Amino acid sequence: MAKARLLIISALVLIVYALTSGATQYIVGDNSGWDISTDLDTWAKDKKFIVGDVLLFQYSSSHSVSEVTKENYKGCNTANILQSSSNGNTSFVLSSPGDRYFICGNKLHCYGGMKLHANVENNQGTGSPVEAPKAQPGTALPPRTSKSKNPDVTSSAILNRVTIDYTFISFFGFLVLLFGVK
Question: Does residue 42 lie in a domain region?
């Protein structure tokens, strides 16, 4: 009986850990994707990229995605790239803290705003939560702006929360439950 109770508590701890940890997979541009019509600056504005997160670029055959240096990002220089892909479904793991820069391989698209700057932060906690800013009486929210013709969707950080280790931990917990009780 004590062993079964310990097993159940362990499984619950593993499930809670799996639900609260792991990386987030961001679909760049949400439903609009990596496209000239997507307002990528607005999309990235409220995102907090953490080491281990994944940027998933989904795009048509008229586009590509290239990781470049800061200088190449500013000038939309497509000649000297760090890595590139044109398969329509490209993932970049944000494996270290610092700034990452992505542009479309079509220079004119890059000049049109099809580029993304991601500031990647360490995944270590800050110690204490920060209080949310207080609303000022009599103020209104600014009007929404978007180049996209697609309807407003909830942020990909919410819709596409992916815990990379969730499947592994769940499977491990299942095996412990299945074979650990005697």
Answer: yes
Which domain covers residue 174, as residue numbers? 1-22+163-182
Cα separations in angstroms, 67 against 56, 90, 128, 138? 13, 11, 34, 44
pLDDT at 23: 84
- As a whole number, mean pLDDT of residues 111-128 equals 82
**Could you count the other beta carbons within 10 Å of the beta carbon of residue 64?**
21
DSSP for 113-179 reads: T-EEEEEEEPSS--SSPPPPPPPPTT--PPPP--S--SPP---HHHHT---TTHHHHHHHHHHHHHH
Same domain as 53, residue 16: no
- Residue that has been written with the tokens 């095996």 in this structure: 175
User: The tokens 């074979």 sit on which residue?
Assistant: 179
